[in-house]
Amino acid sequence: MAKLEVGDRAPDFELPDASGRPVRLSRELARGPVLLVFYPGDFSPVCTRQLCSYRDSYDRFASLGVTVLGISDDTIDKHRRFTEEHQFPFALLADPQREVIDAYAGTGMMSGGRAHRANFLVGQDGRLAYVFVEKVSLFHRGADELYEAVRAALEQGAQAPK
Predict the structure, then answer these.
(1) Which PROSITE patterns match (predicted)?
(2) Cβ neighbours, 10 Å, residue 27
């Protein structure tokens, strides 16, 4: 896996959401910037806290015109149950083959061989405007800190030229 950096073109992908509907990054970008949230797995204590904090701050991200997409290697069915239990307003995408995970966040021993916790903001131009990869799975970018990083990246021009 090559390390992605701010300014790199984001690899396009298509993954199913919790209802099985295909979600393609390039289609989502037509509406605005996309925040990709990679996490090790549904229902784990840290992942649940992380995604619930993003859920609770969802309106702040939406006010910036940002679409949030969560990605792990869990199944569509597990994502559906996790979404229903916690009422996530954003899509969780299933990547059981870890192709998108490997292209972006990678996997590691500290996350039990699963996805590193990572956040990638993709601007409407398809380029990465913000990159954060946490190698220690017990930690995650807090919602307030992530919101401020996304807001700052957008102010620096992550939007497509009008």
Answers:
(1) THIOREDOXIN_2 (PS51352)
(2) 12
Per-residue model confidence as pLDDT tens digits over 102-142: 999 888 766 567 888 999 999 999 999 999 998 665 556 78
Q: Which domain holds residue 108?
A: 28-158
Residue 7 covered by a domain: no
Tokens standing for residue 13: 């992908």
Counted domains in the chain: 1
Catalytic residue among 15, 29, 34, 47: 47
Catalytic site includes residue 52: no
Helix (H, G, I), strand (E, B) or coil at 76: helix
- State the Cα–Cα distance between residues 16 and 91, nearest whole angstrom: 9
**Distance of alpha carbon 1 from alpha carbon 101, whole angstroms:** 10
Q: Is residue 140, in this structure, part of any structural domain at all?
A: yes
Q: Is residue 6 part of a domain?
A: no
Amino acid (1-letter code) at residue 76:
I
Tokens coding 154: 């957008």
Please, which residues bridge with residue 92 across strands?
Answer: 70
- Cα separation, 18 vs 24, in Å, equals 14
pLDDT in tens, 53-109: 999 999 999 999 999 999 999 999 999 999 999 999 999 999 999 999 999 988 876
Could you tell me the two tokens for 26? 């390039």
- Mention every residue, 6+ apart, whose C-beta is less than 8 A from residue 42: 48, 72, 74, 78, 79, 81, 82, 92
